Amino acid sequence: MKKLMTATLMVVMVLCTFFGMANAQAEVYTVKAGDTLSKIAGKNWKVICKLNRLANCSKIFVGQQINLGTRISVKAVKVAKLTEFRWTRVGGAPLTNCGGKSESSLSEEAWVKLGLMDSEKEELRVMMMSKSHQNTFLQPGEHYQAVSFCKNGQVSFKQSVVTAWPKGSVVVQARTYVLTTGRKLHWVRNCGNWVLDNPVPMSIPVSQPPQPIVPQEEEIVQPSPPAVEPEPEPETSLSPFHMTEEEQSGKPRCEAQAGAGVYANQVYQGKWLYGETICYVWQNGEWQAGPGLYAMYGAGHSLTSAYHGQELGVGFQVGVQKNWVNDRNRRTTVDLKLRLLSDKSWGENPESGYSFTQKGKKLGVYAGYTERLNKEGDLAGLVGEYWKSFGQTVHSTWAGQPVQDRGSVGISGFYETKLSDDNKWRQRIIGGVVHTNWDQQNWLRGTYEVRYDDWLMFGPQITLPIGVSDLNQPLTHSDLTTVGAFVRVELGGKVREADADNRGAQLEFIPAEATDPPK
User: Fold this and answer.
1) How many CA atoms lie within 13 A of 347 on its CB side?
2) Tens digit of pLDDT for each residue in 436-452?
3) What sign for the dihedral angle of Cα 466, 472, 474, 475?
4) Mean pLDDT of the chain
5) How far is CA 373 from CA 128, 145, 240, in A?
6) Pairing state between β 354-372 and 331-349
């Protein structure tokens, strides 16, 4: 008898699963008396309301057809709950190094298992190369359409997954990619597994609901859905492409960079150094601002005499940045920095006995505009920089020594594109004009910058005089033509990435629930 009951129960479950799956394939549901959106679509009633463009989610009518997309009826929801997979142990079956395969190969296999279209896979490849992702955290109690795992050295997957690890037992970091088709995928840093989030239904034309007609034998039922605040309209803009999830939640975003260079022409040669930091401690939506430090140093010597000189400036800066998607649907960043330095310049000629020292203040303004042109990550932009000396005093062995204005102004444009297929090596072509106040000279400057992994930059530079100013007479155009080279490092992104990797490495020492890996 017991065996008969068991067999009967199994048959019933199979039949329920079959009919539940059939319901899941239905695209249109006809409203019956007593129905509500929450009864038809479960917890997804708000999504279905938007999909059908209902003016009032509380009002549906008997006989009205509701487009469910790929959503399922209440019966199928109940069956799905019986087949939910509970993900209790992060890293129990990691995709990383599964079968000894490379990360890119495993990702490709996972995308096939998760049912991505070819166009979606191509878009995802581009987004990964251009690092167009958000840093997010997966939390316990979340529901996902499918998750890829490693099983016997092969890529496998589970559908209808619920994250069920104990709250607070592990920090699960992910890189989140939102495709233009509406699909959202997470790549879990802890284990390399790919997670397919519930897809965002795309808007499709839906016929207008029929006018309510009161039936003669039954009353129209207009039950209200659960008392939940209306869901906000989905965002159509992209997230700021320089900000992580933690930074958007209020964590200060800090940047640090330093550079050095050399230059020479037929009358003078020298070197320069600079370094700066800034922390965006204030954030409000697309805007962020914060303080920082700035320092610069230059030194050089004449090739026609024994003169050599130096300049040092140290001070503070305040920066403001805005990240948004512009009217052309391109990710855009604007930077503005205001700098105030204590400045000192000095020089001497031992052969003639000449020397001078000049001290004062220096005001600087930096402005930059950057626009991402395409999914491949090509960039274009403008950069402007202005320096003005003020409050200067000079002490010199020459009684007629005037105060020298150590200011300058320049503007340049740039275009950046990839050099390597993995997008780690990139190139930036820069061209612009500069005016130097100390000799009243105008210059045309060109730079070729090679960039590696967004932290190392280097390349050659050439500066051509536009005419010859009165103060530079009787020098010639060829005398003033200057060539140089530079190297620069930008550490902000790498510091944040190293910090995230360090936190990720600590995860293996956090005990998780002792369960078998998914099979």
Assistant:
1) 18
2) 999 999 999 999 999 99
3) negative
4) 78
5) 16, 33, 15
6) antiparallel
| pLDDT above 70: residue 172 | yes
- Report residue 336: phi and psi, to 5°: -140, 125
Numbered ranges of CATH 2.40.128 in the chain: 245-480
The top-level CATH class assigned to 245-480 is mainly beta
Transcribe 337-379 into DSSP letters: EEEEEEEEEEEEETTTTEEEEEEEEEEEEEEEEEEE-STT--E
Q: Which CATH superfamily is domain 1-82 in?
A: LysM domain (3.10.350.10)
Residue ranges, CATH 3.10.350.10, the chain: 1-82
- pTM, two decimal places: 0.56
What is the per-residue pLDDT across 106-118, written as a single tens digit (0 to 9) for each? 889 888 888 888 8
The answer to whether the CB of 407 falls within 8 A of the CB of 440 is no
In tens, the pLDDT along 71-122 reads 444 444 444 444 678 888 877 788 887 887 888 888 898 888 888 888 888 8
The number of beta carbons lying within 10 Å of the beta carbon of residue 191 is 19
Closest to 404 in 3D by CA, of 420, 415, 417, 388: 388
Q: Which two tokens stand for residue 85?
A: 């997979």
The pLDDT tens digits for 278-319 are 999 988 778 899 999 999 999 999 999 999 999 999 999 999
The count of other CB atoms within 10 Å of the CB of residue 161 is 21
Q: How confident is the model at residue 27 (pLDDT cuts 50, 70, 90)?
A: low
Neighbours of 76 (CB within 10 A): 22
The per-residue pLDDT for 87 is 86
**Which residues, other chains included, contact 113 with Cβ-Cβ below 8 Å and sequence gap of 6+?**
146, 148, 155, 156, 157
CA distance 354 to 341: 27
Question: Largest alpha-carbon pair distance within the chain?
Answer: 118
Q: At what angle do helices 103-113 and 118-129 cross, to 10 degrees?
A: 150
Rg of the chain over Cα atoms, rounded to whole angstroms, equals 32
3-state secondary structure 5-62: HHHHHHHHHHHHHHHHHHHHHCCEEECCCCCCHHHHHHHHHHHHHHHCCCCCCCCCCC
Give the model's pLDDT for residue 493.
Answer: 66
Instruction: Specify the pLDDT at position 517.
Output: 36
> Is residue 455 within 8 Å of 243, Cβ to Cβ?
no
Is 164 or 493 the better-scoring residue by pLDDT? 164
CB 133 within 8 A of CB 175: yes
Q: How far apart are CA 55 and CA 45, in angstroms?
A: 14
User: Which residues on neighbouring strands pair with residue 485, listed in sequence order?
Assistant: 262, 460
Task: Determine the number of helices (DSSP H) and then strands (DSSP E) in the chain.
Answer: 9, 22
